[in-house]
From TrEMBL, chain A:
SUPFAM superfamilies: Nucleic acid-binding proteins. The lineage of its organism: Bacteria, Bacillati, Bacillota, Clostridia, Thermoanaerobacterales. PANTHER family: BLR3430 PROTEIN. It comes from the Bacteria. This is Transcriptional regulator. It comes from Carboxydothermus pertinax. InterPro entries: ChsH2_C, ChsH2_Znr, NA-bd_OB-fold, Thioester_dehydratase-like. Residues 14-44 form the ChsH2 rubredoxin-like zinc ribbon domain.
UniProtKB/TrEMBL annotation, chain B:
GO terms for molecular function: acyltransferase activity, transferring groups other than amino-acyl groups. Gene3D superfamilies: 3.40.47.10. Residues 4-226 form the Thiolase N-terminal domain. SUPFAM superfamilies: Thiolase-like. Coiled coil: none annotated. This is 3-ketoacyl-CoA thiolase.
Length: 142, 391
């Protein structure tokens, strides 16, 4: 056993992982990402429409995973980056998502920094490269 | 619903025990629990068993663990079930056992927890601990369990001005307590400097902010009020209890500087007990990472969020303070055998309330009401219990 995400399981979430496609609740307007069967705001179980999220947001919180502390799928990455930052981003549309911060990483990561989604290699499992979203800090913007 | 009391409790030391498997650990705690009952109890008096475990032994899923363990101690025909809610498995086993007695399903029930973590390679341990969050969306950002709590810590520091040194003080306090506990895994005092200079794990945490991987088991024996006198004249009643749940992933929650699951659980427990947080004499709280104890102070009503740092700064949660927290050493120093933790906390509260803390220097004086708080994962679930010595 393990934290293994099979290829079919990954494939089902490609829309989210590659393009940040979320759901909008037609009942109350709540934007939901990643998609769920029930609206977190009003509890509706149907009448959702897909929405394309902008991919822009701000750092809500962060950590830097030390090389020795990385999960096994990321040990290679930790080995060549030494350590890597993971951020909780609050998107313009409201939802928060967790992702890695990609290079160039600022010398000091700060809560509130503007970021934008980029498509990157996340890790490799079963010899298949898993792509998905990371975020990069937008320099010179506030 | 009937009132329910603890009549006995046992716990293995927590630590690294290469010679003991999951069955042996359970049997050790079971024997101590049976022998701890003042007037004695025949094992066959136990009518139902609820056993918490995440890995069900060495990181592998082993079906029907509970009847296997009960069979090992000679009780194959006691209806038994394994309960799993990650790090709160023991707390939820206790919750189920209390309900079994309170509802009249049985008069005497066993609640237990057991975990064998040290058999597992660190790579594999990371795999099966990783599954206690929202694996698909948290773990696959490269986040570890420590990383999730680190993100909480960074946000707490931003919102409330919590400093790195103040975080470290949680570990310093709990190690100070753990040094006195003969069953604790790490019996060594540390300083703020030790914590700050430790190996980095996930910023702002070093290894000293994190609870260890541990082997261990704990067993609690519960009895209905009408039969308590058969077993003891010094029962500890569970006067209030509650559970709570939330989205597993941090990203789905409105606030990450408070655990809604804990608030839900504690609100229910206080209401049932008919008391306020001010009436709690001491508590065992879920400090899997230093920030977790700070969250617990707020969510258990020990103070306002943000203000609670003072409790630590002024020494109020030290042994001898107004509200000692984690005199056992907590998960941080006593150890954290995942499934055992919730029942191990009950073991500590039971013994403290009865003046049986073994080592006199670690005995809380004249305590009447204790509380224990067990969290699953990073706040996906929580269980809170309030105990009172009667007689
Ligand atoms: Zn809605």
């Amino acid at each position: 056993m393990g934290a293994h995400i099979s290829i079919p399981m990954y494939q089902r979430a490609v829309k989210q992982r590659y393009r940040l496609v979320g759901l909008k609740c037609s009942n109350c307007g709540q934007i939901i990402f990643p998609p769920k069967a029930g609206c977190k705001s009003c509890g509706a179980l149907d009448n959702f429409t897909e929405v394309q999220l902008s991919g822009r947001g701000k750092i809500y919180s962060y950590t830097v995973i030390a090389g020795a502390g990385a999960p096994p799928e990321f040990s290679e990455e930790a080995a060549y980056r030494g350590a890597y930052p993971v951020v909780l981003v609050e998107l313009e549309e409201g939802p928060r998502i967790i992702a890695q911060l990609t290079e160039p990483v600022p010398a000091e990561i700060k809560i509130g920094m503007p970021v934008e989604m980029v498509l990157r290699q996340i890790y490799t499992e079963e010899d298949v490269i898993r792509y998905g979203y990371k975020f990069k800090v937008l320099e010179g913007e506030k | 619903m009937r009132r329910v009391a603890i009549i006995g409790a046992g716990q293995t030391p927590y630590g690294d025990f290469p010679e003991l498997g999951v069955k042996e650990l359970f049997a050790m705690a079971f024997k101590e629990a049976i022998e701890s009952v003042d007037k004695g109890i025949a094992p066959h008096e136990i009518q139902q068993a609820f056993i918490g475990s995440l890995s069900a032994g060495s990181g592998f899923q082993l079906g029907q663990l509970a009847p296997l363990l009960m069979g090992h101690v000679g009780l194959p025909n006691v209806p038994a079930v394994r309960v799993e809610n990650a790090c709160a498995s023991g707390g939820f086993a206790l919750y189920n056992a209390i309900n079994a007695v309170a509802s009249g399903q049985c008069d005497v029930a066993l609640a237990a927890g057991v975990e064998k973590m040290r058999d597992v390679s660190s790579t594999k341990a990371k795999y099966w601990l990783g599954i206690s969050g929202d694996t698909e969306f948290e773990r696959l950002a490269g986040l570890t369990f420590a990383g999730i709590y680190a993100i909480i810590a960074r946000r707490y520091m931003e919102e409330y001005g919590l400093t790195r040194e103040q975080l470290a003080k949680v570990a310093v306090k709990n190690h100070y307590h753990g040094k006195m506990n003969p069953k604790a895994q790490f019996r060594q005092e540390i300083t703020v400097e030790t914590v700050l200079k430790g190996a980095p794990v996930a910023d702002p945490f070093t290894v000293w902010d994190c609870s260890p991987t541990s082997d261990g088991a704990a067993v609690v024996l519960l009895c209905s009020e009408d039969r308590v006198k058969e077993f003891t004249d010094h029962p500890v009643f569970i006067i209030g209890y509650g559970i709570g749940s939330d989205y597993l992933a941090l990203q789905d929650r409105d606030s990450i500087t408070s655990f809604k699951a804990t608030r839900q659980a504690s609100t229910r427990a206080y209401r049932m007990a008919g008391i306020t947080p001010k009436e709690i004499d001491f508590a065992e709280v879920h400090d899997c990472f230093t920030i977790a104890e700070i969250l617990a102070y707020g969510d258990l009503g020990f103070g306002e969020k943000g203000e609670v740092i003072r409790l630590l700064e002024e020494g109020e949660t030290y042994l001898g303070g107004r509200l000692p927290v984690n005199v056992s050493g907590g998960l941080k120093s006593k150890g954290h055998p995942i499934g055992a933790t919730g029942c191990g906390q009950a073991y500590e509260v039971f013994n403290q309330l009865l003046g049986r803390a073994k080592n006199p220097e670690r005995q809380i004086k004249n305590a009447e009401v204790g509380l224990s708080h067990n969290v699953g994962g990073s706040g996906g679930t929580a269980a809170v219990f309030i105990y009172r010595r009667e007689g």
